[in-house]
Amino acid sequence: MLLPKSWAVFFCLGTIPLGGDMKYIYTEIKAKNNDIIRGVLNTPDSFDTNKKYKSLIFYHGLMDDRNGINYMSIQQAKYLTAAGYLVFRFDFRGCGESEGSFFDLTFTRQIEDSFIIYDWVKENNFVDCENIYIRAHSMGGAVAIKTAADKNPKGLILYAPGSNYSIQNSNLIRTLDEKIKSQAAAEKDLGGLKISAKIAEDSKKYDFLEIAKTYKGKVLIVRGDKDPVIDRKSIENLSKSFKNANYQEIKNLGHNFTNYEKRLEIFELTNRFMEEE
Description:
This protein is of the alpha/beta class. The chain has eight helices and eleven strands.
């Protein structure tokens, strides 16, 4: 299969500490409202469109993009492509380089984006459709749970996943819901980015713990024991909801995995998980 004409190919230069040379193939997908979702496919240097590859799709968190916090997603893509995988990284609408407004972000919109991305990945002849994995972080984990339940990937990899966005459990949702009830400005400033309160109403549509019960594939969940955002209890509840989950807790690590050696440990955990039958 020839690569779509809209793709531009760029090559990483220099030595990559986490693996060999990695190719960057940039692409654009149209959402239903014609907003452009922008992303990149990372491949091994030996990439051959006539072969089929095990593939991962990365879904990022709320205030993040396809590169990851402190470039974690790029680091992991180098690690994975060195092992022979393809990695697809996209910005959800309103995030990174994709079109759309961050202000209007909702779970429903991100889930819609995730479905579009997943279906598009499967259309590529060089993707082994029986070996697609979803890897997600934080709020992207909730999006990934719903996507896995509907699309049935080979496996699901969740890093510090959000799964309980009830008013009682989520500070963000609770704050926005209170603003709606008080008729205050129905928005919240998240470190320089404003988000609408409609995400609070939208969150009521989804019970991610119940949705998790419908996914039959294998699941790896990783959380740092110093995570101030996602507590251990919520992860334990999520693990119980899945039929086949492996929960790994990493010592002395926070929500965003901002430790180089710990990241390498997580990357290796992830690779082993995908190689297990």
